[in-house]
Every structure is written in structure tokens, then in C-alpha cells.
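From the pipeline queue, job 12 of 40. The input is one protein chain; the requested action is below.

Action: predict structure.
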Amino acid sequence: MLAATFVLLLICACDPVTGTGAGTPPDPRQYLKVDPTTQTAVVTLIAGYPATDYQFNYDGYGNGTLNLKVPVGWQVTVQCANHSTVPNSCAVVANAAATEPIQPGWSTPDPQRGLSPGQSASFAFTPTTSGAYRIASLVRGSEASGMWLDLEVVQGGMPSLTASQ
């Protein structure tokens, strides 16, 4: 009886269609590693993070509430892991209407097809122009469902990963 109750609680707490249950997204700073000496940054983006009840998110944040700020000339490595139940990708794009990465190689492999659940991949990019961009999943319907974060390329400073609520 106790085991059946435990299983029932797990089922109620987890929604395999839209995510893995409610929760508070973690501090996004833990997903960014910065080396000022080499001017490199590594950001980990977990697609379908289990902190929310909606799987179209990176690190538990969707619809642009996550903001990555990087200076011009810094090399940024994006580690993209798909923990959701559907294919997702990570790609640096110009805006919400973009269907291709800004430059070849600025995405996980085959970003329109995406990474299968459980897969991960990484890519590196070095922005040369300041401006407002996005990192988004280019799998059909993902970005429209909230699978994107703001990417701000700035003159000078240090990389940061923050969340607005």
C-alpha cells in the first residue's frame, strides 16, 4: 500500500507531456563558467529542465526570461543538453523570425531536427558585433512555445547569465 501511494504521488507530481512538475528554477549563474584571462565562457543550457511544469525552457526559464550577456570578441561555448521528451536544439539566431543560425556552426548539429531526448552537443561562437540576439531551439514550434533566451552582445564587461521574472 505504501509503495502504491508513493507511485501515485510521483505520477501526480510529474507530467510526462508538458514537463516534470512544478518547482522554482535554479540560480542561472551556476550554468555559466567564465575565464577572464582567456576571454572564454561556457554556458550550459538544459532543454526541458525539470524545475517547471512546461518543458519548452532552458535551465527552467522560457520566453526570454533568461538573459546571456557576453562582450564582443569573447569565445562562448554552448553546451546544450536535451532533458525534455521531444527534440530540441540550441542556435544563435538574429530574432524570433529566424529559421537558421546567424553563422554556420553557431548551433547544435541539424538545429531544425534537433537533439533527441537524452542527447547533448556543444558549439562555440565568437561574436564580433554588439547587438540583441537570441539562443533558440529551431525545431518547428519550439521557439514559438517559449524555447529561447535573450543574448546580448555588448562592448566590454564580463559575461553574465541572469533571469528576469
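Job complete. The mean pLDDT is 87.
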